[in-house]
Amino acid sequence: MDRISVWSPSFEPAKGGIEALSADVVEACSREWDAKGLPVWSGPGRGVFSKLGFCWRVFLDGVTRRPRAVILMHVHLLPLATLLKKVFGFRLAVWLHGIEVWDGPDRREIYGADEVDLFIAISQVTVARTSGWRSA
Prior knowledge:
This protein is an alpha/beta fold.
């Protein structure tokens, strides 16, 4: 099995669309690569300790497993992933979820867009509205 990690705000489908999609992606990856132990990292939550804990867990994953690829289920995780990509050299895929990104990125979302290997947009409208994220 390829060393892949999935990062998401949550994997609880009852919370909403992004969470449900995250759970589906993990299930599909697990089936495709027979990955009984596919590392999935949820968080970072709202509190400062929750965010630090999430950062620590994904850093340790980088040190111990050296993932070849990281799939981000939410663009808000991009700054952290960009930093760790520079350290660990993994390939990076980011899901873009419609209304979350349609109004244009804020600074933290656009930071690292040039480091993304693959953007996965939920719709053609999302593709059109985010096409200028990378530098020319």
